[in-house]
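Q: Hi! New to this. If I give you a protein sequence and the SMILES for adenosine-5'-triphosphate, can you show me the bound structure?
A: Yes, paste them in.
Q: Okay, here:
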Amino acid sequence: MEAIEVTGLRKTYGGQDAVAGIDLVVARGEIFSLLGPNGAGKTTTVEILEGHRRRTAGDVRVLGEDPGTAGSAWRSRIGIVLQDADDAADLTVHEMVKHIGGFYPDPRKADEAIELVGLTAKRNSKIRTLSGGQRRRVDVALGIVGRPELLFLDEPTTGFDPEARRQFWDLIRTLAADGTTIVLTTHYLDEAEALADRLAVVSAGRIVAEGTPATLGGRGAAEARVSWTENGTVRSEQVSDPSDLIRHLVASGADLSTLTITRPTLEDTYLSLIGATR
Ligand SMILES: Nc1ncnc2c1ncn2[C@@H]1O[C@H](COP(=O)(O)OP(=O)(O)OP(=O)(O)O)[C@@H](O)[C@H]1O
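A: Thanks. Here is the predicted structure of the protein with adenosine-5'-triphosphate bound:
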């Protein structure tokens, strides 16, 4: 059974399509990332999958059930890290994580969840005394304390410092290796590239491209730009396979100390996909 199966999903607000027909399958154990500009329909889609919003049309199965009608047993199998979680600021980190863990049938120990997000040193601090990035880590701890089979992360690393982001990425990989399915919404393309097995780009309520980070939008087949210096001048050529050109340059004794070979980044591909659909 797939973790998520969506066909023909639509959501309209006052006659306007926020989600205009989305088909989506996420396999169990997969890290799936949703990308797209502000207002594309990502949060609306994810909130429907979480059972927090009603759909206008379409068929949705999440862990085998319809989120619109599924009950608390289904809910306890899902973890959610929202974009703007509002913490109960007067509790300590440990009190809060323990409290939320109490709602699940087989929670992690609060200290284990706190350690997984790297907050052990702040275990006994009141949440209101934490920095923005530390609070975000509490949100993540709350999302994983119930040992979810499926974890939704909506822009999880906003406000994280670079080291905290890398730690968070390791955590997500560990959870996925344990079999947790992860749906990640992010505006950080390096994050999507580092984590996602597959990604989909949403624009104006539709999926405009889907693939792996390496192949999205034809990226795998994109030409490489080879640059080098010749007689003090920078030369560059665009080729599908640089091997012949490099052999030729080596044979001709060209100066290759400044040689670079670049292909479109995920960000380049994403921006051209978004630009083409606007
Ligand atoms: N409750 C609502 N009532 C009316 N319109 C809404 C509502 N929620 C979202 N929308 C509209 O639906 C569209 C999709 O919004 P959504 O929040 O799903 O986008 P998003 O892709 O998550 O954007 P962001 O990257 O900014 O979080 C937007 O045009 C938004 O204004």
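A: The pocket of adenosine-5'-triphosphate is lined by residues 13, 18, 36, 38-44 (CB under 6 Å). Let me know if you'd like me to explain how to read the tokens.
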